[in-house]
Amino acid sequence: MQNPTSIEPISVEKARRPNILLITADQWRGDCLSAVGHACVKTPEIDALAREGTLFRQHYAGAAPCSPARATLYTGLYQMNHRVCRNGSPLDARFDNLALAARRAGYDPTLFGYTDTAPDPRGMDAADPHLTTYEGVLPGFTARQLLPEHERQWLSWLRSRGHANAVRRDIHTPVGAEAGEISDAAPAYSSDETQTAFLAGEFIRWMGEQDRPWFAHVSFLRPHPPFSVPAPFNRMYKPDDGPAFARAENREAEQEAHPYLAYAMPLSDKGSFIHGAQGPLSAWSSEDFAAIRAIYYGMISEVDAQLGRIWQALKDAGAWDDTLVVFTSDHAEMAGDHWTLGKGGFFDGSYHIPLIIRDPANGAAGRIVDDFTSAADIFPTLCARLGIEPKNGLDGRSLMPFIMGGRAEGWRDAIFWEFDFRDIAKGEAERHFGLRSNECNLAVIRDDRFKYVHFTALPPQLFNLSDDPMELDDVAADPAYAAIRLEYAEKLLSLRARHLDQTLAYTELTEKGPVTRRPR
């Protein structure tokens, strides 16, 4: 993998600065698009965007869960450099990000939703309430409509529409179902009243107020749990729809596959996925996971419908051909694979995410890219498109050569991500494994042939993806794979060496003053 540390110059349309619309849909799996041939999920509006833009089939998050993943998306840095290790880890104020860079380009970047950015506490008063939550706003954004996970703004909006009971998040419980029950019944709110519809409407209203090029980040919560969705999406898919689950024969076999799984899987709680549910995830059956996945698919189609509403509003406003659209996610969702839900760990199901970029001024319409791309590439792509120089070294690379129909020289031949399972507040992982916090982490390097998982202080893993695409057979201890394991460990070591923070490493003080030379 190469490590360019500057933004490749791109010849772009200069007559008018484009509008920038960055859309994230939280916890969306990269295989859940009909445009990539999913077995049942239908996403006609995203497919329409892909036909006019570039679809990146092998796009991956840089970390999980939300805060670490979004830190990579927003800063263009791997977790090894931005050091947002978990939800609640502050983002160091010294790092540049896409909102600050957009301001330098003359935009007022405006947020709809959330960024899950914990502020740097240094220089802040200890009593500042912003230090009591990880759901802060990325520096540089103007927040037009916040919608963090408590959803109070949306609940207030629902009450204004006659839903007197929209006081707490238990409004997600389907009508007629018991709290915590897995049900394909619909909640009390309609498909025009979802959180997605609320944010889409707020963005469309704001867009109508603009009289100059704009930059908007619409950050949708869905299809993040709780798993519940109104009609017609609640019964759009059946539990037996979709591909076979990627998982071992039973939950016990899955947990026995690695010490990390034996630790993490029992900690998963039902209430994180179905509102009001109690008890461990292990109490749910194979049929329960299938029912939940069908609801998850419906939530994806619900978001897709609201994206169509946004596309039409852009066209009605005459802004469609002036707007660069980026659609992606922060991380993905296991959706029952490996007998689990949510995100984290090392399986592809948590990290393979969608990416479509439509640039009407420069894009090659309908292009599909099979090269490995990273969430770290979004920030440098916007920098290249807008002619902005980042203020620190970046780990990602601009995707503009792909968007313009070509291919970047020396592109990466593998993808890399990280996961940190430290527990600073309670120390549970540290006590369980007898490790220091800085030993509770893993890094993954993956290409089309093999996937190597390096734990700092636990046994490594190696999967032969050609023969084992579901990641069920760890061959790291097999002597026949010893040379391959060493090869991928060396690749990972070299990657980390190339991507150490380069902010000042390309500057040297000489008798003539500072000289900076960043390789292209």
From TrEMBL:
Keyword terms: Hydrolase, Metal-binding
Any one cellular-component term (Gene Ontology): cytoplasm
Any coiled-coil regions, as ranges: none
GO molecular function: metal ion binding; sulfuric ester hydrolase activity
CDD domains the record matches: PMH (cd16028)
Domain Sulfatase N-terminal: from-to ranges: 18-388
Name under which the protein is recorded: Probable sulfatase (Sulfuric ester hydrolase) protein
Taxonomic lineage from the root: Bacteria, Pseudomonadati, Pseudomonadota, Alphaproteobacteria, Hyphomicrobiales
